[in-house]
Amino acid sequence: MDMKTDEDLQKDVLAELKWEPRVQPWTEIGVAVKNGVVTLTGTVDSYVKRWAGEEAVHRVHGVKAVANDIDIRLPHAAQRSDTDIASAAVRALESSSLLKTSNIDITVSAGRVTLKGQVEWNYEREEAERWIRNLWGVTGVTDLVTVKSRPAPAQLKQEIERALVRSAEADAKNIQVEVQGNKVILKGRVRARAERQEAHRVAWMAPGVTQIEDQIIIA
After folding, report:
1. What is the mean pLDDT of residues 171-194?
2. Inside any domain, residue 58
């Protein structure tokens, strides 16, 4: 596959931002590319829009890294005190049936929310951050929540491979799984980014996994 020029990459990034509904109007975001590194600039009205813009750019093939220099300017109606944000954050996490909120500590300073604690599963960490970044008034999220490390079962490799076989989104025969302690290494060649994302999802579902090393190549 030919390497994309910076100009080609910029066009693809702009197209992906236009395609992403959470960052509309996408014209608020400026895009510069140098040697495969994308710099985002501009001003948006919420943290979730800033975060979604960065996530969209990472989806574009050929992007090596992203520098997110987007500023957040909250509309007057969305501005809240740190106390109000902290209270809303507590209520948000308590409303999720997937979380044990007693395991997560919340600190708010100048609109930035810091999450600390330890959870049993990676999906709990992702769930907590998802709830917080969607709150009005939040200007940033620092996720310091860790996944409890525990010995991986001897059958962990086999269980992940079986889960990949069951998945309709991944071609299991093209994905190899290695396990080193609590780290899962994914290798192989897949046809699309969606297959690689599905391999990640399946591996994170396994108990005790605290790290994934992705060596999958998109052919």
Report:
1. 90
2. yes
